[in-house]
Design a protein that fits this description.
Layout: H1 6-16, H2 20-32, H3 36-55, H4 71-80, H5 88-105, H6 121-126, H7 129-132, H8 137-157, H9 162-165, H10 167-186, H11 191-205, H12 222-241, H13 250-262, H14 280-293
Helix pairs in contact: 1-2, 2-3, 2-8, 3-8, 4-5, 5-12, 8-10, 10-11, 10-12, 11-12, 11-13
Iron/sulfur cluster (SF4) is lined by residues 117-118, 162, 167, 170-171, 211-213, 218, 221-222, 225, 270.
Length: 295
């Protein structure tokens, strides 16, 4: 039976004496009828795909529209010059989120986590961390299982798609997955609780975010929204690890996000009829792209 709520994961942790990631692993084995080894091998393939995508980024590619490309490299160069106000890990998170999300827009290979539009968030918090901390491959796979479990719960209880729940469902879910994964890498005795608070805070902070892609392309504002998803994840994880709690329980936050998505006007759910897509510049870009490429 698939994971229906965060509460269910916490209960299984208590009942079976398992860590969060082990509950998700067991669920995957049951759902897909695969062995532990087969499940972990698939997760390793996912991790390697994220690494390869990051390693092969050059910043030279542009999207077909020409609106996106090269910003990940610009951010890396800015960081390299020591100019970033954030500095260190967080500035690399920003650069990685841009690079990965651009890679999607430029048709490079990425891992949809949970969707292609939000593909930059999870790798952006995990890949740079490997430079700062000695993380084993197994620890990283555990973190990916935690992220997968969070994504599964949100998909079942609410939505992970901009078309049905707005960008809060897409970037918001990716941010919650990344926040939980970070806590899992650092968590102590109260790991489950802290993951819950991190997920709740990450989702709350992006609640109401609309989906308004300019010209209907997953480029503007999508690439840069991956940055806010990633940085939001880091701050939510840090707050949870510091012992800061969400006053609203995580499952209630997920339900609230689902409700906001269902009541969101259709103009703000990937139709490109509202928000940034409907600005004078957004409309002009759409007209220009239509004239250049046709419908
Ligand atoms: S604006 Fe819409 S298409 Fe773009 S990342 Fe957000 S949900 Fe995805």
């Amino acid at each position: 039976m698939a994971l229906a709520s965060m509460k269910e994961i916490f209960e299984r942790m208590a009942q079976n004496g398992q860590e969060f990631w082990e509950v998700v692993l067991a669920d995957d084995m049951e759902e897909r009828q695969v062995s532990r080894e087969a499940s972990m091998a698939k997760m390793l393939t996912t991790w390697r795909a994220m690494q390869e995508s990051a390693d092969s980024y050059t910043g030279r590619k542009r999207s077909v529209s020409g609106l996106v490309g090269g910003d990940g490299m610009k951010m890396r160069q800015y960081n390299f010059r020591g100019c970033a106000m954030t500095g260190g890990y967080v500035s690399e998170v920003i650069a990685e989120a841009l690079s990965m999300a651009e890679s999607n827009a430029c048709m490079r290979r990425i891992v949809a986590a949970p969707t292609a539009g939000a593909c930059g968030v999870l790798p952006a918090v995990l890949l740079p961390l490997c430079k700062y901390e000695e993380l084993t491959q197994h620890q990283l796979l555990e973190a990916l299982y935690v992220a997968a479990g969070i994504g599964e719960v949100i998909a079942r209880k609410a939505s992970i798609a901009g078309a049905s729940g707005g960008c809060q469902a897409e970037i918001g879910t990716a941010s919650a997955m990344a926040a939980g994964a970070l806590v899992a890498l650092r968590g102590g005795e109260n790991e489950g609780e802290q993951i819950g608070h991190a997920v709740a805070m990450a989702l709350k902070n992006l609640m109401g975010l609309v989906c308004d892609p300019v010209a209907g392309l997953v480029e503007v504002p999508c690439v840069k929204r991956n940055v806010i998803g990633a940085v939001n994840a880091v701050s939510a994880a840090d707050m949870a690890l510091a012992g800061i709690e969400s006053r609203i329980p995580v499952d209630e936050v997920i339900d609230a996000m689902g409700e906001v998505g269902r009541r969101m006007p259709v103009e703000f759910r990937e139709t490109a009829l509202g928000g940034l897509a409907a600005t004078p510049t957004g409309e002009r870009l759409k007209r220009e792209l239509t004239a250049r490429h046709g419908n």
